[in-house]
Design goal:
about 900 residues, mainly beta, five-stranded antiparallel beta sheet, about 0% helix, elongated
Amino acid sequence: MKKNKLFFGLVLFASNILFFINAFAQPYKYNLDFIYNPQNNNTEQKIYRVNLRTGELDTVISDRSGLAKFLLNPSQTKLFLEDSRSGDCEVIDPEMPDSTLKIFYTHGGTISGVLDGPDNTMYVSGWFGYYDGDTVGLSGSYIINRNTLTIIDSTSISEIDLRQDLAIHGFHNNLSSFLSSDKSNFYTFVYNDKTGIYFDVASTKTNRHIGRKRCGILGGFVYGPSIEDERNGYAIISYETSAGFAYQKYVVCNVDSGAIESIIPFTQRADVYLSADTKYTLIEEANWDPSAATRKYLPGEYIPGNIYVYESKSGKLIQRLALPPQGEVLLFDNYPNMLYYYLPVQHRSINIDLSKLTSINSLNPTTSYTGSSNFTITISGKNFTSSSIVNWNGTAKSTTFIADSILQASILASDIAVVDSPLVTVKNPDGSESNSIRFYIKQQPVITGYNVKLINSNGTKLTTGSLQYYDGVWKDAINNNDGTFFINTTAKTLSLRMTYEYGTQTKSNVSISTDTIVFQTVNAQIQLQNSNGALIDTGTVQYYAGAWRTLGTTINGVAVKELLPASYSFRMTYANASKDKQQDIGANATIIFKTVNAQVQLQNSSGALMDTGSVQYYSGSWLPLGTTINGVATKELLPNSYSFRMSYAYASKDLQQNIDSSSIVIFKTVNTTVQLQNSQGSFIDTGVVQYYSGAWRAFGSTINGVSNKELLPNSYSFRMYYASASKDKQQDIGASATVIFQTVQAQVQLQNSQGTLIDTGIVQYYSGAWRSLGTTTSGTATKELLPNSYSFRMTYALVSLDKTQDLSSDATVRFSTVLCTIRVKNSQSQLVDNALASYYSGAWKQIGNTVNGVITKELLPVSLSFRVKYGTQQIDKTQNLSTNNVVDFVIQ
């Protein structure tokens, strides 16, 4: 606890006056020297400063006399020079010391402090004189503009009594006053040793008191509380719970928030400081030795150079600095992380970046047992160097530098031979030493069994596992139902088998020890990636452990499960297809399934890509893949062998392919050519073509005897329509793409009874209806017809005769007439002449009169009605000429 600390740190020495402020804008140390000049028997004065970064000295003011003291505002832009005779104070700019900016007339008084305020203001306090028969010193304070030095507000002794709410009340009474971190409030420490730590709060905007704030809940002090240091909304308060330094504590108060951030016990006399950024609390040993040289505030105070750096928020010791004795701690707002340790005799500074101090966060391991072997301890922390040394209870150990945050040290069996709790620290070549962490050496216990636990990849215990151990046969261990197991045995080694989620892991010949035997699962991550490596969803994952077990479905492309480290078969199901993969997740816990981009192409016979092809693939059933766009349908599929089906022009074609070997599946149509040739082999038109695929589909009409269509290479039935008839033909166009239909020349002849070809026969054929074939010329009518079986009709002499014939067997259709002979006799069987003969075919047609009792006519051999008229007699008779061509009439 600092004793008799003067506000703003004014220090009087026998030979000179030294002054420093806890927060400088520049890293300078200003000094006032008295120099005796024997030539004129005068004592001259000069002010010089030391640049704490470079060590350079320069004189600010020289050849002065009558200077009682000087003060600087914290930003070091104004230097206040107080005359020892008048007490008046001259204000100059340290960078332009020859120009006087202002003179404050104190009338024999003194200025005691200067503080930078908000909004370009300064607070100046002191004791100012006036005369009313006697000179009386009055307390007073000014708020002035930092640039122009004009007075904004002021107080006198009478105003202090009447205006207790002034923000500068505590300041001009030389109390411990300081600004909040945002400089909106002025805090003044209120001494109270009964109920807690209090601060008066005043607004720097209105310059008026606005209330009182309590910092945390703390009270019942035996000695104290006293303020040790303050800045930027923080204050360090000291108190003792009983008489003596052994009961001394330092409280880090965040006055802005009204909270106590840490309480740091320290059992020696000390000076205490807050770093400029308030992140660190510095406690400097300040021993009391009446024989020691004068230093700082009090004669007899000896500073050995030991400074303990604590983290303000946690109160954790970061490092102990071992510095030369009799130095001064200087801290500057413009250099918030820096500690400047000024050595006055040498006019130099040791500059320390507090953010780069060496500190320890953890040890691994943290404990050991007596009688254990040599081991390596890992120290984790920050700001280690290659020259840092690990100390074990003050003894340097063999140290290996791993990184600026990791050191390793060799600990010998002799170091852990007895129960102890040695301190582990890290020491640097400059003598600075980190905080300490205890390592605990425990008595080696008597081992009577095995402790086993099952944890997941994050170290959390798993409660659903089961453990067996081998003792002649596999036996169940005691399950504590909290993720731990116990095996009560005196065996020195055992084989253990852990079962979790149907998987097992066996550890053979495990030696018994005090350490818990750990089975740890790994976080198996099963990924489904597409052909571009992007993660995709809707993959369903299983793993095999005695049977196929559900693992999960990919979310953001990944399904995860904690499994014991072993080799498993994994199955990914995607788009109704599955792929298996075996992997040891103990070696690699990430299992990657990758689809391929199956590209199903439809090409025509020339290799050009075609659209409107509909694609399916078979995986348990036929599933849609897509329709060709620009000739291609694509789908991400697992790399298996699939049957693919292309449907095009009402037909389909199947193709099996392993897309792991080749992901491009090509279907190619053939240019199907259907030809219509006549009996001479010449191409003829007006043939209409169809093909059968589920139903008869239009193919096209022959042009120049040919019709073409791109079709999948299958076996089709083709149908040719020509001359109102059709002909079907089946052909595998994969074997031959040219389908030929050829007509035959149907020749329909008309012969008389003598076999002589005769004309004027009218010919028809039946194909859905009777169609004209032609009229016999030279006894024959011809027509190209498809080689089918047709009904033909010959009409001659108004009589028709039908005949069916298969042209594919015989293309010549012959019709023959018979010589119809009409014979007329009387009852005496005598031939009768001039009898008029007729036959009926739609109407009665005359044949003629008998000559010598007979008349003849070539007629087609059908059944006809005949009539004979003779005189007044008329006789009708029906007769089939095909059976008897002589028609006899008897006239009575």
